[in-house]
Amino acid sequence: xxxxxxxxxxxxxxKITIEIKSLNSKQFDMAARVPSMLRELELxxxxxxxxxxxxxxxxxxxxxxxIGGTSQPATINIDAARxxxxxxxxxxxxxxxxxxxxxxxxxxxxxxxxxxxxxHELQPEEVEAVFTALDSALDGLMAxxxxxxxxxxxxxxxxxRAITEMLGEVPxxxxxxxxxxxxxxxxxxxxxxxxxxxxxxxEQEMIFYIxxxxxxxxxxxxGQHLIYxxxxxxxxxxxxxxxxxxxxxxxxxxxxxxxxxSNHAEMQKLVVRMKDELEQIKEQVLNVM
Length: 289
Known about the structure:
Number of helices: 8
Helix content: 55-70%
């Protein structure tokens, strides 16, 4: 389920900003960009996000800015730059590559060469501020998800009602369908010589054939699935998205069987319309937690 949350917390001359964005995904997949001074907190941040969001492709961006004229001057890590240069020169000799024309441009872009927070020791109040900002951003994202969830609930309710109404139209064509099948069989039987017919075997085959074309079980099961889908959708606990997906699959099986058994143009039109409504449900079920 998609969502977005943002939070800003100011403490000790620093402004901590956290933004979280989630997109639809069957699994939880998170990408995080945090300053080097917060790397020790990244695992706990991931754990908290996973516990709240459960599913989705999540992007988390955390930034820290100095405010109030308290920023420290940037420093150059000469040891890191020296190590990078020696390794690049060794690689160039091994691969037969020429050295870069501008070593400054190359080295200054490498990680940890320039920074003013890489060796900063986090204070307890700063750690608390980071997680306060994270929780607040998550609250905003979850509120966004709830709003989207309410819209999805209305969307599903309309589609379920449409399928239910179409399912209720099936009996309207049942008598005509059976009469047509009976007439077709009768016409075929009249073309067969009576001497060639085993009446007992014929009756058995007719009963078997009629049972194969009976759609009452499919109608009942589809109706039960529609009710179960609505009940599951109304369940307050999270994690219902996968269950709704499974129910939608079962609904599709019953609709397909109904169509294969119908042997009636109007009933097959109903089946096509039910499939169209169900496909819209399946597309949006991926957005449900």
